[in-house]
Amino acid sequence: MTKTAFLGLGHYVPSKVVTNDDLAQMFDTSDEWIQKRTGIKERHYVEENGIGASDLAVPAVQMACKNAGIDVSEIDAIIFATLSPDHEFPGSGCFLNHKLGLGGIPALDVRNQCSGFLYGLQIADAWIRCGMYKRVALVGAEVHSTGLDFSDEGRDVTVLFGDGAACAILGPTEDEDAGLIDVEVHADGSGAKDLWIEAPSSSHMPRMTHEMIDNRAIWPAMNGRHVFRWATAKMPEVSRSVLERNGISVKDLDLVVPHQANKRINEFVAQKLEIPPDKVVHNIEKYGNTTAASIPLALSEAIQEGRAKKGDLVLMPAFGSGFTWGAALVRL
Asked: Is 97 a catalytic residue?
């Protein structure tokens, strides 16, 4: 039976590095405060005005194609996961399609925030197994820095996020010892307003007003304690579900590549699942939370560094805004 394989991965981050000390020059915070609560030391921001999520995606896709041993022209579908699209519409997948010279191939945007890569993976898996497409570029890309509040009021959210992109080239394989094993995703909108941006909104006429700006409705808002409780409950829960359904033990795992939202969350999840620390990938200290890009970025780096290799069994759990969450199992 045809399975979906990870043929190659690639990633890209902007060159501008912003440290915790840099942020401390803008609002009331400190390197110690940020590291203690999040594990983040620095993050990358776009270098100048005019750079969108699709621009970051281009070199990530090119690197993924090189590692997959294919030409960019061989991509026959794009799935673009992002919460920071280039524009309100059209989707960033269409902008990426054009920038890669792939006019004519389908481009689907996925708006499931930190779980976006997993939602996109489930879609790509269905497309590939039914024979619809053979080379799917699954992209996660974010430009958070242009939408953050660099004031004391916004610091709790602002310190978390960074810009970056990553891509997985997915395709069919007949290899029984490789490929995607399972993906499980969930959502619960009762927590939607615990991590969101209220405005602009199509429920308001007009969608954007000066009052919304004055009331801070245009900035990300988070109920941190509530998000932490949900994340540390749902990520282990869905991980166990995927493992048990496939008759796989935690001890069988070679590597866990979780969404990089908060190092404390990932350490808590690993403890709940009884996963040794040396099997868990953390790169949040360098990049912060890159939402939809975080899992493929961390996996791409792990492969590049030799920490992940062909034949490894990898678990990828995530939790984020929506609330959305999920987990995937793949044999590289």
From this structure: no
